Amino acid sequence: MTAAYLPSILVPIIGIIFPGFVMAFAFIYIEQDEIA
């Protein structure tokens, strides 16, 4: 029963939050690289 609505929670996390985290990490990495 739990697995019925589990994809509806995982899909937004993988589709929105994960790319946002990756782009934020890449932005911080580029900014630190330019400072150093």
UniProtKB/TrEMBL annotation:
**GO BP, one example?**
photosynthesis
Regarding the membrane, this protein is recorded as: Single-pass membrane protein
Q: Which residues cross the membrane?
A: 6-30
- One cellular component term from this protein's GO annotations in UniProt: plastid thylakoid membrane
Keyword Cell wall biogenesis/degradation annotated:
no
- Keyword Thylakoid, does the record have it? yes
Taking the first listed entry, what is the main subcellular location of this protein, grouped into a coarse class?
membrane
UniProt family annotation:
Belongs to the PsaI family.
What the protein does comes down to:
May help in the organization of the PsaL subunit.
What is the protein's name according to its record?
Answer: Photosystem I reaction center subunit VIII
Q: Which organism is it from?
A: Teleaulax amphioxeia
Lineage, uppermost ranks: Eukaryota, Cryptophyceae, Pyrenomonadales, Geminigeraceae, Teleaulax
Q: Which gene encodes it?
A: psaI
